[in-house]
Amino acid sequence: MATTVKGERTKARIVLAAADLIAKHGVAGTSLDDVRERTSTSKSQLYHYFPDKTALLRDVVLRQAERVFAAQRPTLDHLDSWAAIERWCDELVAGKEKQRFHGSCPIGSLVTELAEVDPIARANLAASFERWEGFLASGLAKMKTRGELVPSADPQKLAVATIASFQGGVLLAQATRSTEPLRIALDAAIRHLRSWAAKP
After folding, report:
1. Is residue 107 located within the same domain as residue 184?
2. Do residue 93 and residue 148 come from a single domain?
3. CA 58, 60, 66: angle at the middle one, nearest 5?
4. What CATH number did the domain enclosing 10 receive?
5. Which of 4, 145, 171, 200 has its CA 20 to 30 A from that of 153?
6. Using alpha carbons only, what angle is made at residue 174 by residues 65 and 164, rounded to the nearest 5 degrees?
7. CB within 8 A of 151, min separation 6: which ones?
């Protein structure tokens, strides 16, 4: 079935509204009626695009991932130097402070709610993390090619460890209402990355 430009805009508006509601109230605390009210759409219109809540949530996963990446650009696209990696980590901490420590990672929070109930959503979440890790892995690979990392360094594994540190730091920041745990976690991640630096 062909979708018009207007239809695509309506669908995107529904997904965005659902993402905002879920970020505030969680998956369980957000109903399709809540989404309809927020977007002023009819039940038939909503079901035209999304036959059920599960289908809508799968699109929300993709939307939240794009939000995360967009918020971290352009730094995210150029993580190929120590200065850029440290700047990226500083920006992550500043972003959490701007939120006044409320809320968890838009992608990470969905894992706890969806991974065990929807295998497709779980796969989409895993792919989102892999894509996120890929930005750093790509930058580290360039550094390795330039001889800035030791030959045994594995950019992909280092990227996974860094994102894992960020996720844990965000969780603790949310609990403590302080960016200090996040800063500690990211500082440790940077030290780990630098432990693989080639000696001059």
Report:
1. yes
2. yes
3. 115
4. 1.10.10.60
5. 171
6. 50
7. 144
